[in-house]
Specification:
Elements lengths: L2 H4 L2 E4 L7 H4 L8 E4 L1 H17 L6 E2 L2 E3 L5 E3 L5 E2 L2 E2 L4 H16 L4 H4 L1 H12 L5 E9 L2 E10 L2 E4 L6 H22 L6
Parallel strand pairs: 1-2
Antiparallel strand pairs: 3-6, 4-5, 6-7, 8-9, 9-10
Helix pairs in contact: 3-4, 3-6
């Protein structure tokens, strides 16, 4: 991939409020726009479960999709540890995810689970340096929300995990909330 092609992907931590200009098809060189909030939540989720299960973070496969932060959808029903269905203590996980930003602000785990780690992981996938799954915020069916994308040679394909009924309800609620926020942004009522 050339430098010119690489510059066509933009990464932002502001997935809750996407400006009308960045959602249009004619935004110029930034034709692909991705938000990293759900990616950082997913990395923090895997780290939390790794610590809980006393395994390396690479042994945990699981995602946080939908909305970044309080409205995040933890895909516990499809999470695995060492390839097996995982016990996911949701209350513990939610408490750890809520505490993590304060820890990062204090300088703990800034690279691996913070924006820097999320940006590096996303850039490696979007530039075609490595293949794999990243959770990024994209315009999916007209709504900007965090979803899992399978990258192959820099090309993304939507790869949503199977959701149980409660996870599907949470995902729908996050989608509705984000669509409402986006509509307000279009009307000039909010800003990033």
């Amino acid at each position: 991939m050339s430098i010119a092609e690489a510059s066509s992907a933009s990464l932002t931590g502001c997935e809750h409020r996407v400006t009308p200009a960045s959602s249009r098809k004619d935004v110029g060189p930034a034709a692909r726009v991705y938000g990293i909030g759900s990616s950082t939540d997913s990395a923090r989720y895997r780290l939390t479960l790794a610590i809980h299960h006393r395994v390396p973070a690479a042994a945990v496969r699981g995602w946080v999709i939908g909305e970044h932060g309080d409205g995040a959808v933890i895909c516990a029903s499809t999470t695995t540890v060492n390839g097996r269905a995982a016990d996911v203590p949701l209350e513990y996980v939610r408490a750890q995810l809520a505490a993590r930003p304060r820890q990062i602000n204090a300088g703990i785990g800034r690279t691996r689970c913070g924006p820097a780690g999320a940006i590096l992981g996303a850039l490696r996938k979007t530039l075609g340096i490595s293949d794999g799954t990243e959770v990024l915020s994209v315009n999916h069916d007209g709504v900007w929300l965090g979803i899992s994308l399978q990258f192959s040679a820099g090309r993304p394909t939507v790869a949503l995990p199977d959701l149980d009924p409660d996870e599907q309800r949470q995902f729908t609620a996050a989608r509705t909330k984000l669509d409402s926020a986006y509509q307000q942004t279009l009307q000039g009522e909010t800003a990033c």
